[in-house]
């Protein structure tokens, strides 16, 4: 892939009114979610679940790219067809998560640094040869009274810069994910302050390390109050949209190919509604917004389907309808057309589906 190819791939990921589906959970994380849903935690069960997601009918109408895990990129359907081939046949761009997770930052309690740079060049070359066309790296920033510190921000920003440069060297589009976590009691203003600090440091590192911004996608949190913030100060959808866009317009260079939002622990419905508010806002301020605004959701698309499926083959069709429904809600939100009525029972196909329940 040439430099122009990187740009074309980045634009294909964020353009066309579609978003990304993240199914890149680590094995321990996936097993934890299975355990919570009463599902067996085996490699075969994980393969079956990912086959359910990837083979959802008409998925490409709403999803431009799918982020895979190292285990998943090597798996395939029951008939032997690789998942990469299934995605390619559907016109969906395959990607891969390449970080190895966040670990405690030495001498900085409550802060984390994402690892995985050792050997990354070779792994990226392997993933590219397998058929991946983009990659993802997540850095997390817990919010506390005195955190994140400058050290925590800079350590993660530097790693994101090195990762992005290595990706482009390997002809893979880097998706950079600096996430200010929702956990905590912080205000929306505090989230905005930290998000600005983080983005400033991240893009300084992109510049220093020569990363081409038009061949890069930013995956970022919305500006939100902490999940445990006092309920006496609720925020409206419009306030979230205004605060988020103000932050991004101030800190994100116009050359970036596009911005996709993570759900970060929001409910499915709130993630769609807030995404909708952001894109309705752009309709009135199109000239000010230099990037496409999309989504890259994991649980906010998967969660209903996981519980409907329950590990049972008889529930695959109903679970895929739930995937389609959530993907369609988020596609509508990219046009500013999402409405709460879409969540009512009987709306579309999945609302009234009855499924067999997993025996516990």
SSE map:
Layout: H1 3-14, E1 19-22, H2 27-36, H3 43-54, E2 63-68, H4 70-73, H5 83-90, E3 93-97, E4 102-104, E5 112-114, H6 120-130, E6 134-141, H7 150-169, E7 173-180, H8 188-208, E8 217-220, H9 237-251, E9 258-261, H10 268-284, E10 292-297, H11 299-309, H12 316-334
Parallel strand pairs: 1-2, 1-10, 2-3, 3-6, 6-7, 7-8, 8-9, 9-10
Antiparallel strand pairs: 4-5
Helix pairs in contact: 7-8, 8-9, 9-10, 10-11, 10-12, 11-12
Name the shape in a single word. Answer: globular
Helices and strands, in N-to-C order? HEHHEHHEEEHEHEHEHEHEHH
Which structural class do the helices and strands define? alpha/beta
**CATH level 4 superfamily:** Aldolase class I
Instruction: Report how far the terminal alpha carbons are from each other.
Output: 50 Å
- The helix content, as a percent range, equals 40-55%
Query: How would you sum up the major sheet?
Result: 8 strands, parallel, barrel
CATH C-level class? Alpha Beta
State the main characteristics:
360 residues, alpha/beta, TIM Barrel, disordered C terminus
């Amino acid at each position: 892939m040439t430099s122009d190819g990187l740009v074309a791939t980045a634009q294909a990921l964020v353009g066309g009114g579609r978003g990304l589906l993240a199914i890149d959970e680590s094995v321990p994380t996936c097993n934890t979610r299975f355990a919570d849903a009463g599902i067996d935690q085996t490699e075969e069960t994980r393969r079956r679940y990912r086959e359910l997601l990837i083979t959802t009918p008409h998925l490409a109408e709403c999803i431009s790219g799918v982020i895979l895990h190292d285990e998943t990129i090597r798996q395939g359907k029951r008939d032997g067809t690789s998942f990469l081939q299934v995605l390619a046949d559907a016109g969906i761009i395959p990607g891969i998560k390449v970080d190895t997770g966040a670990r405690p930052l030495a001498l900085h309690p409550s802060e984390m640094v994402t690892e995985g740079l050792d050997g990354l060049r070779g792994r990226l070359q392997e993933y590219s040869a397998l058929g991946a066309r983009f990659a993802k790296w997540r850095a997390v920033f817990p919010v506390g009274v005195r955190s994140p510190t400058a050290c925590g921000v800079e350590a993660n920003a530097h790693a994101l810069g090195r990762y992005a440069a290595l990706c482009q060297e390997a002809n893979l589009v880097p998706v950079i994910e600096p996430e200010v976590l929702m956990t905590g009691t912080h205000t929306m203003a505090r989230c905005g302050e930290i998000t600005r600090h983080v983005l400033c440091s991240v893009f300084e590192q992109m510049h220093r390390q020569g990363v081409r911004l038009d061949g890069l996608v930013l995956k970022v949190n919305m500006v939100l109050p902490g999940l445990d913030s006092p309920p006496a100060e609720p925020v409206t959808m419009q306030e979230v949209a205004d605060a988020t866009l103000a932050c991004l317009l101030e800190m994100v260079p116009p050359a970036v190919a596009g911005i996709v939002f993570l759900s970060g622990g929001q409910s499915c419905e709130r993630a769609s509604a807030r995404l909708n508010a952001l894109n309705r806002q752009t309709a009135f301020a199109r000239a000010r917004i230099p990037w496409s605004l999309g989504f890259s959701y994991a649980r906010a698309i998967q969660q209903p389907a996981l519980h409907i499926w329950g590990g049972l083959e008889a529930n695959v069709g109903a679970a895929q309808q739930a995937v389609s429904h959530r993907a369609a809600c988020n596609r509508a939100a990219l046009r500013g057309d999402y409405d709460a009525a879409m969540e009512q029972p009987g709306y579309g196909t999945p609302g009234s589906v009855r499924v067999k329940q997993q025996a516990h």
